[in-house]
């Protein structure tokens, strides 16, 4: 790839063909740069010649020697030093393609034997994409305590405006006394955080300036979350959404191997919305408890809006005519997030039905030598005598705090907390025994509830036996007695995983066997448990997903069925498709592939050019049907190579006898398939300037 190349056009009329070499008295960066690019020979066709000095646009000072016919270049080394000029944030990414039409079907067959009674249930979930609309229909049937249950749920979601309409059993309500209840009715919402292409959670944007082709890596706590290739000049790289506190590192590395590292503390709160962005929802219908008894009409609504980069306001309402099930609760909440070098502080202020509540959350991560120190805490102060939205009684003052440190394969922590159940104080830690590859964990805690006090100690040991088999031994001693648990887990083969565990306390012994088997697109989960030698319960789940599309049926690999995935139509079999997280999939005989897509992440699809057949036209964005989560798909050429020739307005780039017109300064030129600058043996590149 040619970059930072300018044209030398001395005055005169005698043409000369000269070689581009590096002045021995100057820096040798140009020779190294050409060697790394695999260029065995770079030639300039100059119109006329004249001894003297001229300046190339991006390289340095050029001296033309008329006697030897050589062009000597002294390179300004500072041009090759990449610089990171700042870090910022971005919160909205919009896709540039529409999803293809496809239908997803999930199935879940459940069978349970409990106390000699058999219960069965079937759940089907279908999703169809029509243009920018997602239509989802789910239904289930089952047997619960002698009552047959039939449920249906219809959803229509627009990917264009993030709106969603739904009908059926749409909302679960806890109720004032903690009794489970469900609303059967219709509702709508606008929730951009789960809409493809829209990411309202915080992201990391790195802005910088580089003198040449460079690689920009973004790491959070030494875990790479983004990697991008940037060209000469200003650049801006957006990393994955971040929802944690940690140390961010930006590594910029040029083609010579020179690199610059910038580190900074990073804190973010995923609950905040972008300034001016809003989310809202409302549901109306009938309220039913778990025994299907009608409790009258009910309504729920909420509205959230981002006021500033660190402040989001929210108001909501929950109410029912059946006040003994769910009394009317109105809420006004403000969430603030202040990121400082000392940590991340979030403040949440709420007013509920005349009562007030203030919550504060703090988190921080710092490095001190070889140690990583993390601290976190949460405190809530509220008026007593009311129930929160979750249905539980809120104590007047609750708090929790944790201080931890880790280094050299070990970690420790101290926790103090107060909740409606009581007060807890705990000290613990874990250490890796490298000699045997085991991990040892231990903790000591004290719990106080009213006048009752209890102390307990915990000891755990995890040992890998090899061959995918591991064992776990834990014991906990407290005033209630000693609890022992031994478990062995391992892979029977690549598709079957099983485990056996036993635990006992006060003469009460329980043994359980678990089995997970993968059979093509279907996964079987089963377990059998017994107490004191008597059969207690058995369960079996048969789960899987398939995709119906224009080319037929694509089976979803079971390892992806629990997460997000996308259907990609490439029109050719055997093509390897990779996402930006390293996972890959191969297209089937019809040219379709199911690619894993982590939810709430910006994902870029890449095609392996070694597996793409010649003549495969992938200039448009591949047809993609979104599964769930927020994804971004960017255009990328499959084969060929882009060459940028800077410093020209018009000209012709010649590669292996093929001419490519250059019509604009700094334009990118795509080479034909099979022509690569930098392949083994080198490719002679000539440029004729007008």
Automatic annotation (TrEMBL):
It comes from Scleromatobacter humisilvae. It comes from the Bacteria. This is Fimbria/pilus outer membrane usher protein. One of its GO terms (cellular component) is cell outer membrane. GO terms for biological process: pilus assembly. It holds the Pfam family Usher. One of its GO terms (molecular function) is fimbrial usher porin activity. The lineage of its organism: Bacteria, Pseudomonadati, Pseudomonadota, Betaproteobacteria, Burkholderiales.
């Amino acid at each position: 790839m040619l970059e930072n190349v300018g044209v030398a056009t001395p005055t005169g009329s005698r043409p000369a063909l000269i070689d581009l070499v590096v002045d021995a008295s100057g820096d040798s960066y140009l020779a190294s740069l050409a060697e790394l690019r695999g260029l065995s020979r770079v030639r300039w066709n100059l119109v006329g010649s004249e001894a003297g000095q001229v300046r190339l646009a991006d390289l340095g000072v050029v001296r033309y020697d008329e006697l030897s016919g050589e062009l000597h270049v002294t390179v300004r080394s500072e041009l090759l030093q990449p610089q990171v000029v700042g870090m910022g944030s971005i919160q909205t990414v919009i896709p540039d393609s529409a999803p293809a039409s496809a239908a997803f079907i999930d199935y879940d067959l459940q069978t349970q034997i409990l106390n000699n009674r058999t219960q069965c249930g079937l759940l089907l979930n279908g999703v169809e994409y029509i243009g920018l609309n997602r239509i989802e229909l789910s239904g289930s049937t089952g047997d619960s305590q002698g009552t047959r249950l039939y449920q249906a749920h219809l959803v229509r979601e627009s990917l264009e405006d993030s709106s969603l309409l739904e009908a059926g059993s749409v909302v679960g309500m806890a109720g004032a006394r903690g009794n489970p209840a469900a609303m059967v009715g219709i509702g709508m919402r606008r929730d951009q955080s789960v809409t493809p292409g829209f990411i309202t959670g915080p992201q990391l944007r790195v802005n910088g300036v580089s003198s040449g082709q460079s690689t920009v890596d973004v790491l959070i706590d030494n875990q790479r979350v983004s990697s991008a290739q940037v060209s000469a000049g200003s650049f801006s790289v957006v990393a994955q959404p971040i929802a944690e506190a940690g140390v961010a590192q930006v590594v910029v590395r040029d083609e010579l191997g020179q690199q610059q590292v910038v580190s900074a503390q990073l804190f973010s709160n995923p609950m905040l919305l972008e300034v001016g962005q809003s989310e809202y929802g409302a549901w109306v219908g009938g309220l039913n408890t778990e025994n299907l008894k009608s409790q009258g009409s009910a309504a729920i609504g909420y509205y959230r809006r981002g006021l500033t980069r660190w402040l989001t306001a929210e108001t909501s309402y929950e109410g029912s005519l059946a006040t003994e099930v769910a009394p009317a609760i109105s809420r006004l909440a403000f969430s603030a997030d202040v990121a400082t070098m000392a940590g991340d502080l979030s403040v949440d202020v709420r007013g509920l039905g005349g009562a007030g509540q203030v919550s504060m959350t703090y988190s921080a991560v710092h490095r001190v030598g070889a140690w990583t120190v993390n601290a976190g805490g949460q405190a809530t102060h509220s008026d007593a005598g009311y129930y929160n939205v979750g249905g539980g009684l809120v104590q007047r003052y609750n708090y929790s705090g944790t201080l931890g440190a880790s280094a050299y394969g070990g970690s420790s922590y101290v926790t103090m907390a107060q909740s409606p159940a009581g007060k807890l104080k705990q000290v613990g830690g874990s250490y890796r025994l490298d000699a045997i590859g085991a991990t040892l964990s231990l903790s000591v805690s004290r719990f106080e509830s009213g006048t009752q006090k209890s102390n307990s100690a915990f000891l755990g040991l995890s040992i890998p036996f090899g061959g995918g088999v591991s064992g776990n031994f834990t014991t906990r001693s407290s005033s209630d007695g000693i609890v022992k648990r031994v478990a062995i887990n391992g892979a029977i083969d690549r598709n079957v995983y099983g485990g056996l565990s036993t635990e006992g306390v006060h003469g009460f012994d329980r043994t359980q066997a678990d089995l997970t088997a993968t059979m093509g697109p279907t996964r079987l989960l089963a377990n059998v448990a017994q107490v004191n030698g008597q059969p207690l319960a058995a369960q079996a789940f048969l789960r899987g997903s398939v995709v119906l599309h224009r080319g037929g049926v694509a089976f979803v690999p079971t390892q992806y069925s629990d997460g997000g995935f996308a259907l990609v139509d490439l029109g050719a079999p055997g093509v390897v498709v990779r996402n930006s997280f390293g996972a890959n999939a191969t297209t089937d005989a019809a040219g379709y592939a199911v690619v894993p897509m982590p939810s709430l992440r910006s994902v870029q699809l890449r095609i392996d050019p070694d597996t793409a057949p010649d003549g495969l036209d992938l200039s448009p964005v591949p047809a993609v049907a979104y599964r769930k989560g927020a994804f971004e798909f960017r255009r990328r050429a499959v084969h060929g190579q882009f060459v940028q020739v800077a410093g020209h307005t018009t000209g012709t780039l010649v590669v292996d006898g093929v001419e490519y017109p250059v019509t604009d300064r700094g334009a990118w030129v795509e080479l034909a398939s099979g022509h690569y600058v930098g392949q083994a043996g080198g490719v002679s590149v000539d440029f004729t300037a007008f």
